[in-house]
Amino acid sequence: MSDFPACPSCGSVYTYQDGVMLLCPECGHEWQAGEEARQDDGLVVKDAHGTLLHDGDSVTVIKDLKVKGSSLVVKVGTKVKNIRLVDEDHNIDCKIDGIGAMKLKSEFVKKA
């Protein structure tokens, strides 16, 4: 068996190392070797495909989204980096290049 620690997110024992990062193939969680498991605040946010999202993840928009109060549209395939999860109806705070600060619903994104 491997000498790698279990995934702090889902507890899987099938973790592996890629460079300096440890990865979980079951939930997609990434963390640095030696990093303490972070204390979650109980907020569980999943993308459109059921993958757990975490603060700092990158996501891709899976549907054209109209920006309320504007003629702008966030196109399908737009990559959003460094998201922040919040406990609201629109549960992702982010900044989209060319548009600015926005809130998105996790059901319209997938983990990149």
UniProtKB/TrEMBL annotation:
Chain ranges of the Protein YjdM C-terminal domain: 45-112
Domain Protein YjdM N-terminal: 4-32
Superkingdom per UniProt: Bacteria
Record-linked SUPFAM superfamilies: Prokaryotic SH3-related domain, Zinc beta-ribbon
Family: Belongs to the YjdM family.
Protein name as it appears in the record: Zinc ribbon domain-containing protein YjdM
Organism: Alkalimonas cellulosilytica
